[in-house]
Amino acid sequence: MATEFTASWGRDSITIETGKWAKQAHGSVVYKTGNLVLLATVCAADEPKDGQDFFPLTCEYTEKMYSVGRFPGGYFKREAKPPEHEILLSRIIDRPIRPMFPEGYFSEVQLLVQVLSADKQVSVAGHAITAASAALSVSTIPFAGPIAGARIGRLEGQFILNPTNEEMSRSDLDLVVAGTKDAIVMIEGEAAEISKEDMMAALRFAQEQLKIAVEMQESLAKQHGTVKKPVVLKAPDKDLLQSVRDFAYEKLNQANRNADKAKRNEDIKKINEETVNHFKEVYAPNDRSKEIKHFLHELEYEVVRELVLGEGIRFDGRRTDEIRQINCEIDVLPGPHGSAVFTRGQTQSLGVVTLGTSSDNQRYETLEGQKEKNFMLHYNFPAFSVGEVRRNSGPGRREIGHGNLAERAIKKVLPSQTEFPYVIRVVSEILESNGSSSMASVCSGTLALMAGGVPIKAPVSGIAMGLFSDEKGRFAVLSDIAGIEDHFGDMDFKLAGTKKGITAFQMDLKVNGLGLEVLQKAIEQAEVGRDHILGEMNKAISSVKGNLSQNAPRITQKQIPKDRIGELIGPGGKMIRSITEQSGSEISVDDSGKVTIASPSEESKVKAIALIDGLFEEIEIGKIYDGVIKRIADFGAFVEILPGKEGLCHISKLDVKRVQSVRDVVSEGQKIQVKVIAVDKTGKIDLSRKDVLLGD
């Protein structure tokens, strides 16, 4: 049955249709606002695979270039490997959707959101989350939604729901938030050093707006007559669980009080092996090892959480708001343009900075057209950082997401291209990982930039906050969570910022939502932790170094008149190539007349600037110039006194005595001093070497 529902949401009109397109999918909607048309589809396997013990969910967001009437770039002229921005938006859809499925549901689910028609003024992120939730809501697949997504901006102190892309370019806040009618499920974004009070105000505003979009989906599902398919979730064997608890609980309780990750893992592994071997004998000849391993994991979950909620003790003995030991090193590598190592507990990031010219920037294509990036932060997570062996297959979704979060945290404090005309690349190499390596990347990247002499506005630190809660209403917000607290916790809330305010944030949950009061406590506690981390970073370097690394290129920018760009380039690029060859610097000029000079050394920079200045210098009558003989004729020598500017030194003006032949006195390539004695209306220059020799 075809169903359509239209409603107003903020300034926008939203239409959601189902039962018209993609009817063989288990759930599908066509979502429209402005010229934006999204197709969201979802399918689920009837039964989980044999032995399946996890929930295999795939969320994919794709953009079709036909949606804006363009051909895809590249040789094959069709969409292929998803670009980075599609991967990031796929993650934004996945993260709030995933915790909304029932525990124990292991059937494979595939959720696809495609842009069929684009609107250059409509931001897709929030709408894509809502469309994905709507597809699930009209399907028979079990889902504890609906949820909705929204993008929030702020202009002149006023929050805006789903701002246009033009408005977002002027906004000091970019918040993507997802939630139910009464709880937040996910947040993601960046800000221009906003306060914690403004952050909470934005979340309260967002929560009110999400209610409207959730109610739209409820109305659509009710109108469509959706009936959820009954799903039989695998029930645990309570007797076996109790037997495993009696045998292993106290042992796991003791093992999980060890702060050393390697020793703790070793002890837990031994306990697990001992438990499995014990019950192999009890239940022989039946092998129930898989069930027992699952119960052991559940018991460890209980142990770690009860230590905090019941005894107020974290596994490593820290207070809930205590940060692990921090160590910072700068200038650890001689070759790169800036480097630093940030170590927090058993998490360690090596940050490395490379400075380049405009030719090094990243060019990419979106539905809005061709774009360029002058700042990149790339995150690498090798297997050795967690003591594992696995194939290195390049960055995956996690690496791309972590790098993007750290990039957004730092980019808010970078100087403008006018102030610092470099392309900047920061690479975070994770050397050890035990909790929040993305926030360690923010810290190591900041230290490396400061050590490299990049004039950032303020240092940035980052922290990951966690949460343990239970059905009794107990909860504890944890600062600087370690890997085990992330794994067994309800929340992973990353916040980065300067002393002044927040620059980036990302929150994911494993529960169906959080109230604003818990988020407020986490944001307030995070600010204290961030300030502590900044204090430790300041001990290593408290201000930006005054000089760039000697290995970094020297970039200088000059402005020349737009109508004289051709003089710098010369016929067929002859002049600009000549300056490049003579100086050893890379020269580029844009349509506005801005000249960028990238030099490998100070000497090269000075020479390039002198050559360019000389090209646009006005010739002064009576001034003595250092020139080079370019050509010789019977009647005199042509001397280049400034780049591209030649004058004639007549044979009678070559020497104080009579000259029979020009070549008796000078030769091509010879450097001589000459005096300008005349410049006519056509620009013809008359020179005299004789006047210089006589001292006239």
Can I get a quick summary?
The chain is an alpha+beta fold and 696 residues long. 31% of the residues lie in helices and 29% in strands.
Provide an overview of this structure.
With 696 residues, this protein is α+β, with helices and mostly antiparallel strands. It has five domains: 3-224, Ribosomal Protein S5, domain 2; 238-311, Orthogonal Bundle (Arc Repressor Mutant, subunit A), CATH 1.10.10; 326-540, 2-Layer Sandwich (Ribosomal Protein S5, domain 2); 554-616, 2-Layer Sandwich (Ribosomal Protein S8, Chain: A, domain 1); 624-694, Nucleic acid-binding proteins (OB fold (Dihydrolipoamide Acetyltransferase, E2P), Beta Barrel). It contains 15 helices and 29 strands. The protein is elongated, with a radius of gyration of 33 Å.
Q: Tell me the count of domains.
A: 5
CATH topology of the largest domain: Ribosomal Protein S5, domain 2
CATH architecture of the largest domain: 2-Layer Sandwich
Give me the count of strands.
Answer: 29
**Unreliable segments (pLDDT under 50, ≥5 consecutive)?**
none
Spatial ordering of strands, largest sheet:
8-7-9-10-21-20-18-19
N- and C-termini, Cα separation: 101 Å
CATH superfamily of the largest domain: GHMP Kinase, N-terminal domain
Helix content: 25-40%
Strand content: 25-35%
Basic shape? elongated
Query: What is the count of DSSP helices, taking H or I runs of 4+ residues?
Result: 15
Q: Just give the CATH class of the largest domain.
A: Alpha Beta
Please compute the radius of gyration using only Cα atoms.
33 Å
Class by helix and strand content? Answer: alpha+beta
Mean pLDDT, nearest integer? 91
How is the biggest beta sheet arranged?
8 strands, antiparallel
